[in-house]
Please model this.
Amino acid sequence: MKKALVLLLTICLYTACNDTERDNLTETPGDESVDDKDGNEEPAPPVRLGFLPDKAEGNVFELIEFKLYSDKSFTLADLREAYDSINWEIPALKGRTAIYRHSDNSSNFKFGWSHTFFSPGEYQAVLVSYKEGEIVHADTASVTISDKKDFLNFHWRDITEKSLTATGYHDIFSTGTGYSNIFDVKDGVPGVSLFIRRGGDNFYFTDREKEMLTEPINAIYSRPEYDVEGDPIALAEAYERMFINREPGFIPLGIWITPRTRIVLLECSSPEVSRYGYRVYAEPNI
Model:
């Protein structure tokens, strides 16, 4: 097994350290340069960093945490000497985020981070360390994401009351726009709504908002059984028949059916009805 993370730094998860702070870090015995048999000074071996997820398997829309580990104790000065930058990447998602950066006056370093996977699959993540523009070290780890709950990261039995506020899903590669949910219980029937929270640009009531909601639902639950582009009359009738808590002012665009859940993509008929142009709503298949 990989060794546990042994770090002498007492800085926080996201740390900015100036030169004075680095000078105050404790040097680790045994990490200094040593003399070889001829009396010549040999540099200490470089710091090698790896990472591990907190679990090898997770559910869609479930937060997975990642933490660094090292093969040796080190100071921030050691890290600065070994690498210019370190990135964490998931090639399948075309995502990349900085784990370590430094400049003349400061260094930013993450001991741990987290990410939510929105589609099933086996994802390989890579920690890549650079020096002078060249890759000098890399480490990989895999996470398997599956769909084992009733809807997204919910079991219907766990929803017993209305949510007090919307809950967002953390996407480390997002620039601000992402998924959020609210849930409620009406007439004894639990329901969950998934929508897009606002990012840097307001793209509500656009095709991109619709696509962002449709993509993970199709990936998890396959194609819709009823579709507005197929038979809009059958779709409207199925919506009226299958869903107990229908919200006025929303038009169904597609319906997915699983053994445990009924799911509908809804389009808001007017900005006066909702500030969100589209949403996904789900109820138990009872």
